[in-house]
Amino acid sequence: MEKFEFASQPYVQELRRQLEDALKDSDLAGLEFTMSEEYTNAPGHLCGPDSGSIGFHFKISGGCVEVEACPRDDADVSIIADYQSVLPFVRLEQGRDPVQDQATQDAAAQLMRQGKLVVKGDMAARPAVVQQAHLHNRMAIRTL
Question: Mean pLDDT, the chain, as a whole number?
């Protein structure tokens, strides 16, 4: 299985493929949802010389799925995090090991207290088809 550097252009392309595959049999009619992720202090080769951050978003609207390699300010759910701080966690599958899941939740809470992870919006309010897509796990096994 091919693996991709987190948040790189090839990663975002694979994210698009995985999301489209996960949702291909879903009824998206009437569904409007946008999720954005932005990673600060990203490696320079990923974000370029004029920016210290990189990100992506996906939008479900009008029955279509859009994925772009840029964060959005108007997303229903936004994650803003320090790249290096969350890198170990983006590689871990969720829901497989309760002890690991708890450790990940504890680490996320610590990062939030430190201001290195900010979640805007309600993750629990994500549409069921988005939650059932298990996008995090689909990408975790494909992330370097």
Answer: 94
Question: How far apart are the two ends of the chain, measured CA to CA in Å?
Answer: 11
Provide the pLDDT for residue 51. Answer: 78
pLDDT at 12 over 90: yes
Describe the crossing of helices 83-90 and 98-113 by its angle, rounded to 10 degrees.
Answer: 170
Between 3.30.450.20, 3.40.630.30, 3.30.1950.10, 3.30.1050.10, what CATH number should domain 9-140 receive? 3.30.1050.10
The predicted model scores a pTM of: 0.92
Counting every residue, how long is the chain?
A: 144
Distance of alpha carbon 36 from the chain centroid? 7
Q: What is the DSSP string of 54-94?
A: EEEEEEEETTEEEEESS--TT-SEEEEEEHHHHHHHHTSPS
Q: Report the largest interatomic distance among the alpha carbons of the chain, rounded to a whole angstrom.
A: 41
Question: Average of pLDDT values for 33-49?
Answer: 91
pLDDT confidence of residue 60: 96
Helix (H) or strand (E) holding 132: helix 128-132
